[in-house]
């Protein structure tokens, strides 16, 4: 945990100077802490990251930002960077909130950021598993995995749609008011969520559809949203 201890020491110098790198550091650290059994610390660090995102205006689809009381027009790269960090934080917030049974900090109505990306290079970038040349394969008779397009952007955009449904699940079944909701209303909400999930699955692009035992196993980042 030496890295984590060093992170906490350095954070004091950056917590009052919101920047994209600091946001990414907070979200990365917080996300890594949760599966290590440090849910409280992970939740708090991610929460600081979400609020820092809002503080620097990443939840708004704006062309001009203010730095040190001066206005600057953002470049296309800056806009794309802010957009990706924002939606990455949104996904992390929904997954973590559902896992911990807590209300999300960033509901889908929180910002006005577009979900369309300007840079689509990684969509068709070739993906293949990394094979360590120093390690002998377990079975030399198993055919090697055929490289295929990563479809990274369409996978992530599909994950965004799934996270929208997660938010509705949390509000309907894990909010502070759900205990007072009638059984009839909860059953109606369950049916609505089921319909939304079916529509989401039916709306997946053809290249993201996967039938176990029939289709070739896709990359792990494509299996996760399904």
Automatic annotation (TrEMBL):
Keywords: DNA-binding, Metal-binding, Nucleus, Transcription, Transcription regulation, Zinc. Residues 42-124 form the Xylanolytic transcriptional activator regulatory domain. GO terms for biological process: DNA-templated transcription. InterPro entries: Transcr_Regulatory_Elem, XnlR_reg_dom. One of its GO terms (molecular function) is DNA binding. CDD domains: fungal_TF_MHR. It comes from the Eukaryota. This is Nitrogen assimilation transcription factor nira.
